[in-house]
Amino acid sequence: YQRRVHGEKSESSHSMSKLPFLPVPRLSPRQTGSGPTPDSDASSVLSGWSHNSYLIRQMVDLPPRPSDASADIYQNRKERRRSSSGKVFVGDYKNLQHHKIFSRVNRKWGDKLILFSEELMKVNRRNKMQKRILMITENAVYNLLPESLTIQRRILLRTISGASVSELSDNFFAIHVQGEYDYVMICGKKTEVLTVLNDLMIKTFNRPLNVTVSNCFNYRINQSKINAILFNRSGGGVQTEIVDATDTPQR
Q: Which one of 90, 94, 158, 215 is least enclosed by Cβ atoms within 10 Å?
């Protein structure tokens, strides 16, 4: 029985494969703001998405959605911070669509568009925090080293079995992978990550992303070991505790 304690202050189809690989044009600062530009149809752009992100979602035939997607993703069971309301979804925060690393990804695997990229913290199998960049394309989820942009792992969209979050206003989330080890990550843009994955699941497999909302959930760290992460209120924030759950019933 092992335990580690981490504290976090409360804050704030096939049709896709037919797309040609065309770098998304760089937009001016005026165009990257939320909402329509003077040349766009105001009724077609919902608030919460940057114009660049909206264009990319159009290219993979994903619906425009408001940034406060918690009603769909979290079944109204997760506490939200006030700062989450009206937050703009930018998508490719690291601007990797224009980087040579994505040209390599396109040549090797055929991925054509980046729907999300951002730096975050990953909890490794020894419960230590590691800086990583999470990148989501129309086909897969990527784990990149932040400095070299070396690809550490590629997770095909079809192998993602679901995600987990707590009921509290923290930034932890887990991505569960069929037959492989899972990821636990910490990111202030978790709702955007899960919204993108949910929309891709619906578009590609005609089913939503299965999101578990619980203050205790399991995640697999290798083929033989399972950990559980527990969430509790602590003062003005959220305390997390990670325990070995290999020999306990699945949560």
A: 158
pTM, rounded to two decimals: 0.75
In the sheet with 114-123, reading across from the earlier edge strand, the strands are 151-156, 140-144, 129-137, 114-123, 183-186, 172-177, 160-165, 211-213
- Distances in Å between the Cα of 112 and the Cα atoms of 18, 30, 46, 106, 223 are 10, 25, 24, 6, 32
CB 98 within 8 A of CB 59: no
Q: Which residue from 63, 26, 69, 67 is spatially nearest to 44, judged by alpha carbons?
A: 63
Tell me the per-residue pLDDT of 143-189, one tens digit each, with 9 for 90 and over.
999 999 999 999 999 999 999 999 998 999 999 999 999 999 999 99
CA 76, CA 170: separation in Å to the nearest integer?
15
Contact indicator for 58, 130 with CB cutoff of 8 Å: no
Which of 50, 52, 31, 2 is CA-nearest to residue 244? 2
**Residues 159 and 206: beta-carbon distance below 8 Å:** no
